[in-house]
# Entry
Amino acid sequence: METKKKSGFTGSIGFVLAAAGSAVGVGNIWRFPYLAARDGGGLFLLVYLILVLTFGFTLLTTDIALGRKTGKHAWDAFYSIRPKWGFLGKLTFLVPAIIMTYYSVIGGWVLKYTTLYISGHGTDASKDDFFTSFITSKMAPIVFMLLFLAITALVVFTGVEKGIERFSTIVMPGLFLMIIGIALYSLTLTHTDASGITRTGLDGLAIYLIPDFSDLTFSRFLNILLDAMSQLFFSLSVSMGIMITYGSYVKKEINLNKSIAQIEFFDTAVAFLAGLMIIPAIYVFSGTDGMASGPSLMFVSLPKVFHSMGKAGIIVGVIFFLMILLAALTSCVSIMETLVANCANIFKTSRRKTSLMISIYSAITAIIICLGYNIFYFEMKLPNGSVGQLLDLMDYISNSFLMPLISLLTAIFIGWIVKPKWIIEEVETGNVKFSRKKLYAFMIRYVVPVIMSILLLQALGIFH
Ligand code: PHE
# Structure
């Protein structure tokens, strides 16, 4: 018997914006620009765009169509097709359960910076050890994380239609406009440094857009490829059951072909524009050296950029952090929603009660992650050679290991067991033309399994 659905998306726009709300998050605004900057700009951008149109499209289509066709959350979706593959649904569930433990911690950091800028203390953030001393302090990160989590829980508590859909419909277009505004502003910057060299926003734009093939080696190319691929998973929220759950809320009359293209476009456009607002600005104020700073780009280097903009920097800072806060919220909502929807189903508890239980789980685990920077501090060498703390370890398990593994298994399952036609039929429901049908079938059968196996070996440190 069909399980009765309590809530669903009312229309196509609502669905697209809610899915985009999940996809667009700190991944686009924090992770994408730092990877692009570190990997030299144009080349990374080119590789990423190609991956979005091939891998991103394939994985997103699979998840959403799977959800709509079965009408089930990830936990049951695979089981309902082939009971033997039920384990895959359970495996996907691990990803949001792990990401939930640390996403609200990062959300808390963003909230801290937002309040700092709003209260007029933005310049403090540009001091050298501000970020480190904040995240290593015992109480503050926990307080901000709990606040962030409370807002997230409130949205989830209100349910899909009233909560998530309405929230995303307002926030996402606003975010888009704000980002375009700051990106344009960023292009008008010029700065002359102590050695008398003047750099302009347009010089930075050239670095961001024009691929530089001059000292490209095979291993460097492989690194860029792997960076771009891990970014793609994280950014599109694919291979973790989230898009399956969202797909299950979508009505049959909605054109999936079009909706998927829109989500892809929206997520990539925000990442592209985030790069456009950050990379030229970093280049203007700190040259190519500044571009290499990695994960701290947003929390350490960017406040310095705002500081050197003078008074305008304070306003730009407020808008900027407010924007990431909203993006982080819509993403965190999607993670929590998946956990709540699945658990309500598994334990047969009410939505409200489940939301409460998940909130408690999230709060406790996130407190442990916060303490990973002081009481539980350790340094661990990860299989790919990088060194990380508790948060990085969780991130590594979910993004670098579980996501390629799930994609690999899903591709084998869809490509070889149920066959691509099963998904294609769902996309074509209601006489919709599936424009990239051939590409889809080829990708899911051949390309995805091969590339994911390589990524997995790389993540386990077996292959470098
Ligand atoms: N995709 C979102 C981002 O880019 C975050 C996210 C990650 C959402 C994992 C769900 C799951 O930040």
Summary: The chain has one domain: 12-374. Residues 1-6 have pLDDT under 50 and may be disordered. The radius of gyration is 21 Å.
